Amino acid sequence: MTTLRLTSIGNSTGVVLPKEILARLRVEKGDALYVLETRGGIELTPYDPEFARQMDLAEEIMREERDVLRKLAE
């Protein structure tokens, strides 16, 4: 378990993430992290949940309309 300390950053409060956590998240300085509230607490993720939802919907539509899309591609 890693313990993080809150620190002042200007008029805000922030958390400094160690290199090991950044590596596990596969992010670096300047990247965006999304904060999700889950039953288990707060989750930080580099993946945009709204984009993932839209991609799931697009894949579902492509499966359902496979024949129509194949005809349009011809």
Mean pLDDT: 90
Distance N to C terminus: 55 Å
Order of helices and strands: EEHEEHH
- Shape designation: elongated
Strand residues, percent: 15-25%
Tally of domains = 1
Task: Estimate percent helicity.
Answer: 40-55%
Could you give a short account of the major beta sheet? 2 strands, antiparallel
Total number of helices: 3
Order of strands in the sheet with most strands: 1-2
Description:
The protein is α+β, with helices and mostly antiparallel strands. It has one domain. Helices cover 42% and strands 24% of the residues. It is built from three helices and four strands, in the order ββαββαα. Strands 1-2 form a two-stranded antiparallel ribbon. Strands 3-4 form a two-stranded antiparallel ribbon. β3 and β4 form a beta hairpin. It is elongated and about 60 Å long. The chain starts with 5 loop residues before the first strand and ends with a helix. The relative contact order is 0.09. The model has no long low-confidence stretch (mean pLDDT 90).
Secondary-structure blueprint:
Blueprint: E1 6-9, E2 12-15, H1 19-25, E3 34-38, E4 41-45, H2 49-64, H3 66-73
Antiparallel strand pairs: 1-2, 3-4
Q: Can you describe this structure in just a few lines?
A:
The protein has helices at 19-25, 49-64, 66-73; strands at residues 6-9, 12-15, 34-38, 41-45. The chain has 74 residues and is of the alpha+beta class.
Features:
74 residues; 3 helices; alpha+beta; two-stranded antiparallel ribbon
